Amino acid sequence: MRPSERRDAAVSFIGQVLKWAFVGAMCIFTLYPVIYTLLGSFKTNAELTLGGGILPEKWQIENYIYAFQKLEFGKYTLNSVVLALLTVLFTVTTASMAAYIIARREFPGKKLLTTSYLLSMFISVGSVALYPLYGLLHAVGLTSNMVGLALLLTGGQAANIFMVSGFVRSVPKELDEAATIDGAGTFRIFWQIIVPAIKPILGVIALFAFRTAWNEFVTAQVFTMSNPGLKTLSVAVANLRYSANAAAEWHIMTAGASIALIPILIVYLLANRQFITGLTAGAVKG
């Protein structure tokens, strides 16, 4: 082997080592908190606070029983599921319909509307908007159920609309024209031609919407303060930290955190293929 070939092989080997070392480090930093939380949920409070091994000395299933029976985590989990599913439904429906109109129809003010939507992607008002939004939902009677909070978390979703509109533009317009000749209306074209063709990206935005709704804390905390029965799981877990017995309930907190963590992991595992398909297809079509 010539010196240049040995040098290239050495550089390639070092590059591979550094690459996999980086990937391994990222996996450790990502997975360790998850594993620690899951295993910590089976420990006693004393074992958690005093440290020790990562595995529980004695597996305590009572932490979960206490969380569900005494702290009503079953109700809060159901609230989170309802909120996440409603947010997914509203997000997919509004984003797909809006993207279809923007990509396929011409109307007065279209350019101004799309420009405004693009600008809104770079503007964040944060918590400043919570009070007026709460007042708006209260005025229309949507603060006593999950629908109002789901609508709020759905938001304007400019990024979703522009992602989906890129997929809609990739669908040949000749399909629309052929369907129109056959007597299909706008909604039928949208539902039977466009939606099946853009399912990959709809799966991606549905997954993002589910994650956002499931993990949301600040907005859910504010909008459920007047109605504690609507508290979500993330709010219930966070509130344990500020309870009178917070120092003695670390084992319950980790159990609650695990209850909040497991469903989103399951959703990601089940939707992983759809997620990758949507992103890779978007790299070609978008």
Question: What report would you give on this structure?
Answer:
The protein is mainly alpha-helical and 286 residues long. It has two domains: 3-40; 64-285, MetI-like fold (Orthogonal Bundle), CATH 1.10.3720.10. Helices cover 76% and strands 0% of the residues. The chain contains 14 helices and no strands. The chain has helices at 3-40, 45-50, 62-69, 73-104, 110-120, 130-139, 146-154, 158-170, 173-181, 186-197, 199-215, 218-224, 233-240, 250-285. Helix 4 (73-104) crosses helix 8. It starts with a helix and ends with a helix. Mean pLDDT is 84; it is low at 282-286.
| Strand element count | 0
- Biggest sheet features: none
How much strand? under 5%
**What is the name of the CATH topology of the largest domain?**
MetI-like fold
Oligomer: single chain
Number of domains: 2
Q: Helix and strand string, N-terminal first? A: HHHHHHHHHHHHHH
**General form:** flat
The CATH homologous superfamily name of the largest domain equals: MetI-like
Low-confidence stretches: 282-286
Briefly, what CATH class of the largest domain? Mainly Alpha
* Helix/strand/pairing category: mainly alpha
Corresponding CATH architecture of the largest domain = Orthogonal Bundle
Distance between the termini: 46 Å
> What is the share of helical residues?
over 70%
Number of helices: 14
Mean pLDDT: 84
Radius of gyration from the alpha-carbon trace, in angstroms? 24 Å
